[in-house]
Design goal:
single chain, four-stranded antiparallel beta sheet, 210 residues
Length: 210
């Protein structure tokens, strides 16, 4: 990129803007070559990056008066007037929302409600209609009673979940996770290691049924 206008150039990580356009800066592996991609249709006067929120040195959201962007691509249908970022930079997924929907790494979660969406953990979230494991709807989950537990466990009034999948016959009313391990749990009937039923747990303090 050698034709930047020195009088108008500004850097808004990971973008470079001058009077001629907006350019997204990325690296291509395995050579780690620096690549400059022009952001088509970007409005140079109102373009701004959400540069304080990113999950890698190059992935980012941005917006101008007309559109919202993930890296150098327009997020079709996203509303720049209501778009905001969830402060979840410690996760390896990058969530954002507008008044209509929720987005993960620039992709819309179909059926999500941006106005009621709640970010529970890096893995779980819910809105008025659905519960989610990452960017997938958890089928038949009850949003109003859905809650995240330790590790990849969660539950609602009818089921217990591991990584978004129901654990067969687990009892949500008595289900608890073990203090020393986020991957072990018990209810009144069984012990669990992840989603598997086991005879005993490594966490000896948890080896007692309710």
């Amino acid at each position: 990129l050698t034709n930047l206008d020195s009088k108008t150039v500004r850097i808004d990580f990971p973008y470079i803007i001058d009077k001629n356009g907006v350019y997204y800066v990325s690296e291509e592996s395995p050579q780690d070559n620096i690549i400059f991609k022009k952001v088509l249709s970007a409005d140079i006067n109102t373009f701004v990056s959400f540069g304080d929120y990113y999950i890698s040195k190059e992935d980012a959201y941005a917006e101008d008066k007309n559109n919202v962007y993930w890296n150098d691509e327009i997020i079709v249908g996203a509303d720049p007037n209501s778009f905001s970022i969830f402060d979840n930079v410690s996760c390896d997924v990058f969530r954002a929302k507008d008044q209509h929907s929720v987005y993960v790494n620039g992709q819309q979660i179909k059926g999500s409600d941006g106005q009621t969406y709640k970010f529970l953990t890096c893995d779980y979230a819910k809105d008025a209609q659905n519960a989610y494991y990452r960017d997938d709807v958890i089928l038949d989950a009850y949003s109003d009673t859905f809650q995240s537990l330790d590790g990849l466990y969660a539950k609602d009034k009818n089921n217990v979940y591991w990584a978004g999948k129901p654990i067969k016959d687990a009892d949500p009313e008595t289900f608890i996770t073990c203090y020393r391990s986020k991957a072990q749990a018990r209810d009144k009937n069984r012990f669990y290691n992840g989603s598997l039923v086991v005879d005993l747990l490594l966490d000896t303090e948890c080896n007692q049924l309710n």
